[in-house]
Specification:
Blueprint (H helix, E strand, L loop, with lengths): L1 H8 L8 E2 L2 E2 L1 E2 L10 H13 L10 H21 L7 E4 L2 H16 L5 E5 L8 H10 L2 E5 L9 H7 L4 E7 L11 H10 L3 E5 L11 H4 L3 E5 L10 E5 L1 H6 L10 E4 L4 E3 L13 H17 L1 H19 L5 E4 L8 E6 L4 H9 L3 E2 L1 E3 L4 H7 L4 E5 L6 H18 L1
Parallel strand pairs: 3-15, 5-6, 5-7, 7-8, 8-9
Antiparallel strand pairs: 1-2, 4-10, 9-10, 11-12, 13-14, 14-17, 16-17
Helix pairs in contact: 2-10, 3-10, 4-5, 11-14
């Protein structure tokens, strides 16, 4: 396994460096993935020899940039098995995608007394936009409970699917626990109850095969920087009838058809939701990231990460006083933990001296931290550039910290 993983590690220049005199063990991929040379070089190429705006120029640079930009839409459409490329909308990221649907769908089509159903493990970006709409429209937010292992309690979910629930929005993979939720079953149940379903796939996109048609998702969103692409770009997928029924989220260039001071008509999908100059280089980089993932294969990615998760879980469990939060039967490469009475922030500061990069805090999931009755956790998250040596480095560093505080 190590030889296989190390061959991929060489693709990521950021992974091959020394931090505080120690080899870097980057274990914060749930926050953002490192970027391979292939993506970096493609973005650099855009800025050094192919810079242009898109959809406007009739010269080579503009036509080339437009072609690469739109080819990314095709690649994403294929990746998630979208029925039509026009259902792939480029946004700034998952957060903007949620806000777009909250503004242009929930705010328009939900009425006073309707309910939106969220889970207890949601990221703040899949809570706050719905709350803003709920306050404006007189909607109710209901919460699906989870158990101590970090699994959604499906029986409680079924009970909550009452006729007033018009929209369910749930994370596919928890950023704080690694739990893989039974999204396909949850969507089916929601549809039986007459509710639409929004899938937050930010943490799932680089770990799992996603087929929007098989899932029957009404909306699905993810961010490029979670899948080896640049920051500042994401995707919203939506069913065609829903997207066509929704008004634009923002006004500006490219989303218009005809503009007069008396009235403006809007462009067709997907451009109706892509106002202004987009993050062109980031979208092009996203296309290269999709090529990179396809070259490796999601099955191979999943296998590598599953081995790392298993090894890391077994290794950390041998540390006395260490508690893992989130031990769902189906989970991906995240280990959240606490170590005795040592505050996670102290662990993060000290472990950085050992070259280990982990995330600590509430992970933008304060309601989840409240459920587990902790202010914060430490989170180690893995990707294809990690290896057993990274986990051993984490393990040895935690033993050193534990001894320091005894």
């Amino acid at each position: 396994m190590n030889l296989q993983i190390n061959s991929l590690r060489a693709d990521f220049p950021c992974a091959e460096q020394i931090i505080n005199g120690k080899r870097l063990a980057y274990l914060d991929s749930a926050a953002t993935t490192l970027k391979p040379y292939q993506v970096i070089k493609e973005v650099e190429k855009h800025y050094t020899s192919e810079t242009s705006n898109i959809h406007r120029g009739l010269y080579w640079l503009s036509e080339n940039a437009t072609s690469k930009y739109e080819s990314t839409r095709d690649k994403i459409s294929t990746l998630i098995n979208s029925p039509d490329r026009t259902q792939v909308i480029f946004t700034k990221g998952t957060t903007e995608s949620v806000n777009l649907v909250a503004h242009s769908y929930a705010r328009i089509f939900l009425k006073k007394g309707d309910s939106i159903l969220l889970s207890q493990m949601e990221h703040h970006s899949n809570i706050v936009p719905w709350q803003l709409v709920a306050e404006e429209r007189g909607l109710q937010i209901k919460v699906i409970p989870i158990d101590e292992k970090g699994d959604i309690i499906l029986d409680e979910y079924k009970k909550l699917l009452t006729p007033d629930v018009k929209l369910v929005s749930v994370v596919y993979v928890s950023n704080a626990l690694g739990t893989i939720n039974p999204i396909k079953e949850m969507i089916h149940l929601a549809h039986q109850s007459g509710a639409k379903f929004f899938v937050d796939a930010a943490q799932a996109i680089s770990h799992l095969k996603i087929d929007v048609q098989d899932l029957d998702a009404d909306f699905l969103a993810f961010s490029g920087h979670k899948m080896f692409a640049p920051t500042g770009v994401g995707v919203l997928y939506g069913k065609l009838d829903l997207l066509n029924s929704m008004p634009p989220y923002q006004g500006g260039g490219d989303m218009i058809d005809v503009v007069t001071f008396e009235k403006t008509t809007y462009n067709s999908l997907p451009h109706k939701f892509e106002a202004g100059t987009p993050p062109i280089s980031a979208v092009i980089g996203l296309g290269t990231a999709v090529d990179y993932m396809n070259q490796i294969g999601l099955d191979k990615i999943h296998s590598i990460e599953s081995d790392l998760l298993s090894y890391g879980t077994q290794k950390l469990k041998t540390i006395s006083g260490l508690k893992i939060y989130g031990e769902a039967k189906n989970k991906t490469s995240v280990i959240s933990f606490g170590l005795g009475d040592i505050h996670p922030h102290d662990i993060a500061s000290l472990i950085d001296k050992e070259g280990v990069a982990i995330r600590t805090g509430h992970h933008c999931t304060q309601p989840l931290m409240k459920f587990f009755k902790v202010p914060a956790t430490c989170r180690a998250s893995f990707s294809i550039y990690n290896n057993q040596e990274d986990i051993d480095q984490l393990y040895n560093s935690l033993l050193k910290i534990k001894t320091f505080f005894e």
